Amino acid sequence: MNNRTARNARASGRCPRRMAGFTLIEALIALVVLSVGLLGVAGLQMTGLRASMSAASRTQATYLANDILDRMRANTRDARSGLYNLAIGATPTGAATALSDMNAWVTELQTLPSGQGSIAVDATTNIATITIQWLDSHGGDTSQCTAASGYSVCSSLQLTTVTQL
Fold it and tell me: What is the pTM of this model?
């Protein structure tokens, strides 16, 4: 069938048998292409959300490091004498203000997934080293971050800040 005959058939509302349903196939193919595209966009959105969650943990760790440093600067005498020294996983001890500051800081560390921290002040140089560790699942489920899984879905991240008091 030539173009002229096809135009006449369409104009009169009659389609030859082999052209019938062609627009339905085109619509289905367009729907499949659109669906694949939307799935790709959804995948990109999930990746962006995961990166955003990971960045939020890093931001929180930076905030917590600065928080304890500010508390130590406000109580320089106790900080320089080593009353703020704390090992990872240890229970805070010390004078009233230092103990209160460290207890608050250790409690705030729990806002990070498996968050822990340490403080070390060198008495001769007055250099304070703040270390914060946490598990980063890159926005995934942190409940899967276990030794049994080999932490395969997680990364153990560490932020270390060194400053002079």
Answer: 0.66
